[in-house]
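pinging the channel bc i need a second pair of eyes. not urgent but kinda urgent?? the chain im working w is below, pasted from the shared doc
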Amino acid sequence: MRKSGWAQGGFTLVEIMVVLAVLAILAAVVIPNVGGFLNRGKDNAYKADQRTLQAAVDAWRSNTSTRSGNLWPVVGSTNVISIPALTAENFLRGNDVVASANTSTMTGATNDPSGSYVWGINTSTGVVTSTPSYSSGVYP
């Protein structure tokens, strides 16, 4: 004998709504946490690039301090760091690529939302800084 239509398998509307509610709660918890990881990752990438460039500039300065010539690895008369000068002298290598650097002629040119980061040197103190100043979570 055949049973009535109520005995067939399937999900009720209440069961589907419960599953959707559970998924919504999980999404509400997970999405903000993922955003925090992304911002921390960008913050760490900026700091790592700054440390890499600072170490390369410090090595350049210690290497050229005994000879005359270009005291800073900069582009022309600007204070903008020249990535090609640092790579030509082996102060930066393949694994040291700076995320925000345009390795053709200068540093700079990124596609981040705030515009371009240009890495420069304060020639009085030797400290590497970026222009514009870093904004949390905005980095290539």
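so The radius of gyration is 27 Å. and The CA atoms of residues 121 and 128 lie 5 Å apart. — does that match what u expected or am i reading it wrong
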